Each structure stands twice: as C-alpha cells, then as structure tokens.
Amino acid sequence: MNAPDSRANRESVSAGIAPVSIVIRAYNEEEHIEKLLRGIKAQRIQPQEIILVDSGSTDHTVTIAERYGAKIVGIAKEDFTFGRALNIGCEAACGDILVFVSAHVYPVFDTWLELLIAPFDNSRVSLTYGRQQGGNTNKFSEHCLFARWFPTERAFPQQGYFCNNANCAVRRSTWETLHYDETLTGLEDLDWAKRSQSKGGLLVYEPGATIVHVHEETWPQVRNRYRREAMALRRINTESHFSIIDFCRLFSANIIVDAIAAKKQKVLARELRSILSFRFNQFYGAWQGHRGPSEVSQDLKQRFYFPARTLHHHQEEAHDARRIDYARLHRHELDEPV
C-alpha cells in the first residue's frame, strides 16, 4: 500500500491509539520476510503502514512485501549503513510511533505490537524494545545469549541504554531531534538510546512483546558481526578496554556456562563443537573490533559478554495473548490471496 498523505493517515486512526508505522530493513530476505508480514497481519491492532527499506534485493523480497501492502523505499547498496537505512525509513513514515523489526524475525503472540507500543502512553517514554528468542537454526550459544539479553522481567523504566532494533519502537518526535548516526558500523540503536536517555527520555523493556529472531550464520559471519559491533561500541563508549586477557577469561567462562546448560538439556555431545566455535568467533571478533585506544564500558561489557547466572523465572505474558499459528495462516492464504 503506497502511503497516502501523512495528515490523512494520522486522522484516520481511531482515537486513543497513536498512528504506528513499521519500518523493516531488508536485503534478499525472501526466505523469511513473508512469515514476519503474516505475523503483523495477525496482530490485534494493525499498523498504519509498513515501510520496507530495501538495499537492492535481487530476490523476491520486494515482490513479497508489496503483496502485503508495504511501501517500498530504496537505498543504494553502496550507501547502506544501519543508521542511514533507519533514517530513510523514518523519514518516509507517517506514524507517531515508529516500530523497527528485522526482516528475519516474526512475532510469537497476536499482542506483540499492542504491548510494544503501550508504554508510549507515558509521554516521557522515548523507546521500547521487546524480548527475543532464537529459532531452530540459531546456534545453541546464541539461545543462551538471548536468554541473558532479553530476560522475562519487565523494566519500566530501564536504567541502562541497552536495546535492540530487531524488535524496537521509538517516538517519532524524539527521532526528529535525534536522528540515527549514519557513520556507525553497528549498534546505532544503543547510540540513539544513550543520547535519548541523556536528554531525559525513558527506555522500557517489555518482555511480553516477544519475537523469534532467526539467524543462519556461518562462523566467519558470526565473527564479523561481533567485530563490527565492537568497532561501533568503541565510538559509543570509551571508558574501558577489552584485552587478550578478557578474551581468554570470557571465552572460558562462557563455554563452561553453555556446557552446563547443554548438559541439563541432554544435548552436550551434539552441541559442544558449536559452543566452542560460537564463543571463539564471538570473542575473537570482539577483541579484533576493540583493538585501539578506546573500548567498551564495564557496564556494557557485563551485558554483552559475561555469562548469566542460572535463573529460574516464569515468563510474564498478557493473560489473553494468543500464540500465532503460522501454519494455519499459510493454509488460509493459499485459499484466500492477500
């Protein structure tokens, strides 16, 4: 759906619900994006529009998105940065609330969008982000990372500036005064959150707004991702360092914690090689990216790298949330075209 005039869009939304635009960044995501779009269509409240910022896909990503009514905005592949793609998407959007999702995620419940934007009823809230879980193709250690980074306890407001743009929302009026840094190699979300907090904005973590984040990375891709993010982190925060001693200590500690978790799940023999490979590439990439005069703060180092203590919590879910049946949605769409 090519978005009509911005003012008309805003006025067409029912009273009490702020206009919402969903912005998706994508490059050759035909394998995953349709499941995300089905999940959005299954939400109890619907966005005003979906914006796809495409950086030159050569597969059927754009065609699939157009079938679901998305507005397509292009960015040249050579001009792409994560921050620039977000700014382009935000500029094209008409919503008062801007929701960001990765093209390879999908919501678990039909209340995902509702819960993600609910905290904006508080006028001081500038950003919310939701819980992430891995899919069947994610590495075992990444499941462990997600469990640490995205716990089951709500934070309203959150003290630190950790967040993740794979499942996130910001207030448009705040973005208009704080655009995303287009020069960072990654972690543009943390940089934005830090600047927003410094100006009095509140950050909220809402675990009920859960998505599955699918990764199918090779080991070099894992290493490069953490290297790229570490390079960005050095620019965002210059208070500490990440030495070869940190690499050895964190590599060993995380392997032990992951191995204990795998043993409890009776999958240690199957997952041990994956655990060793993931943690090596994670921390070797981080060490490469941190080489230089200024690196990561102790607070963020703890959040990003240190293994979590074993905690036992029940996931807090909306009492009437319904898990989305993607198989049923697919069967229905075969009979009734979008």
Write the layout of secondary structure elements.
Blueprint (H helix, E strand, L loop, with lengths): L5 H6 L8 E7 L6 H9 L7 E6 L6 H7 L3 E4 L7 H11 L4 E6 L2 E3 L4 H6 L7 E10 L5 H10 L17 E5 H6 L10 H11 L3 E12 L5 H18 L7 H21 L3 H23 L7 H8 L20 H10 L3
Parallel strand pairs: 1-2, 1-4, 2-3, 6-8
Antiparallel strand pairs: 4-7, 5-8, 6-7
Helix pairs in contact: 9-11, 10-11
Commentary on this structure:
It is a single chain. By secondary structure, this protein is of the alpha/beta class. The chain has 2 domains: 6-213, Spore Coat Polysaccharide Biosynthesis Protein SpsA, Chain A (Alpha-Beta Complex); 219-305, no CATH class. It contains 13 helices and 8 strands. It has an 8-stranded mixed beta sheet, sandwiched between helices. It is globular.
Give a quick account of the main beta sheet: strands, pairing sense, barrel closure.
8 strands, mixed
**Number of spatially distinct domains:** 2
Which class do the helix and strand fractions yield? Answer: alpha/beta
CATH topology of the largest domain: Spore Coat Polysaccharide Biosynthesis Protein SpsA, Chain A
Uncertain spans, ≥5 residues at pLDDT below 50?
1-15, 300-315
What's the count of strands? 8
* Widest sheet: strand ordering: 3-2-1-4-7-6-8-5
Query: How big is the Rg?
Result: 20 Å
State the fourth-level CATH superfamily of the largest domain: Spore Coat Polysaccharide Biosynthesis Protein SpsA, Chain A
Average of the residue pLDDT scores: 85
Oligomer: single chain
Instruction: Determine the N-to-C terminus distance.
Output: 12 Å
Q: β content, as a range?
A: 15-25%
- The CATH architecture assignment of the largest domain turns out to be Alpha-Beta Complex
Question: Tally the helices: what do you get?
Answer: 13
Cα shape = globular
CATH class type of the largest domain: Alpha Beta
What is the helical fraction, as a range of percent? Answer: 40-55%
Task: Give the ordered list of helices and strands.
Answer: HEHEHEHEEHEHEHHEHHHHH
